[in-house]
Amino acid sequence: MDLQTSSMDVRTYRAATMYEALAMVRRDLGPDAAVLHTREVPARGWWGWLRGARQIEVTASAGVNVPSRLPQAACGPVDRTDTTVASGLSVRRAPANHTMAVGAAAAPWEDQLASGLSDEVRGRLNELQAMVRELCRQTRQGGPRDLPETLFRLFTDLIEADLDEELARELIERVRTDASDTELADPVLLRARIARLIESELVTLGPIPITPGRRRLVAMVGPTGVGKTTTIAKLAAIYRLKQKRSVGLITVDTYRIAAVEQLRTYADIIDLPMQVVSTPREMRDAVRRMNALDLILLDTAGRSPKDGIKIQELRAFLTEAGADEVYLVLSAVGAAKTLVQTAERFAPVGTTGLVFTKLDEATSLGGLLPVIRHSRLPLAYLTNGQNVPEDIEVAEPARVARLILGLESVSRG
Questions:
Q1: Which of 30, 173, 251, 305 has the highest CB neighbour count under 10 A?
Q2: Cβ–Cβ contacts within 10 Å for residue 196, how many?
Q3: Same domain, yes or no, for 220 and 320?
Q4: CB-based contacts of 269: which residues, under 8 Å, 6+ apart?
Q5: Does any domain span residue 82?
Q6: What is the pLDDT of residues 357-397, one digit of tens each?
């Protein structure tokens, strides 16, 4: 870990973890330090560059007064400054850009910081706005302000797992309220309690149920490029080759010829009937021709969540198909805010479950929890690679919770 100091008493700290960086700030600048910016940067030295090592960089100051952006109603009139005390570290939250303006004009060091950011575009910006904020409930109730060291470390772990600050604070506060003194003193027990809290919020569907003599139709919807076609191929292989069920494929992805040919290749390899439809009426006829099968898997064209007309067109196809389940397929690589908005835009088509893909490509999975919370959709499947049919698993609450917290590997191999 290292330290850089400027003439304006704006200091930059680097450490292997967020916890270590904040501990340096707390030790050097005291409890009134203002955290101005945090990000992830390449480690210094040829060895760090060669191995792709990363460090956490925190910019802080003991002499900058950051105006509050928190609405007064949030915490009442108790404190006009947006301040958090965590294990003795007071952090005033900067605005949500990469630098901070004090008053009406920018501070002299702001331009220096901005130019420094543009030079390191390879660093994945981990914009937190603030690491910790006044816990409003504690302020109103006049409770103790300092977080125990174990909770402070757990908070930084949640942030590094890519949970947003508000959600991380909520989970920490729930743990602090409910945990026993023994648990509060044990980091392992605290992580287990956090995992159980997240697990309690998860609802899963289990594998697609097959009832003898009754056809089941499952549709996959979602944006372009999230892996709908590959997910359908994996499910088709599992149910046809492993479970010996009769399976058929229907695609309305006529916008991308390559997607149709990809699905046709899978159908030929697995020896499945396949229909390509371009109108709702053709959809009705295709389903009728496959009505004697155990399972029909419906592939749809990727739609932009912002294109309301295409979403309504998709809804018409699904209505004619009479889908039993409509799984919204989302890439785990996407930003949490984008995923939440996508789930909202696809809700009118009648989504009934979630499938998260590309877990193996995501650097962290904390962003999945806001989507699950806001959409209130149960989880169906997770995928973690391109191999058919190996890289897919039925979602299980305990495993998903541990994946979100980074406590378990995506690969089970």
A1: 251
A2: 13
A3: yes
A4: none
A5: yes
A6: 999 999 889 989 999 999 999 999 999 988 888 999 999 99
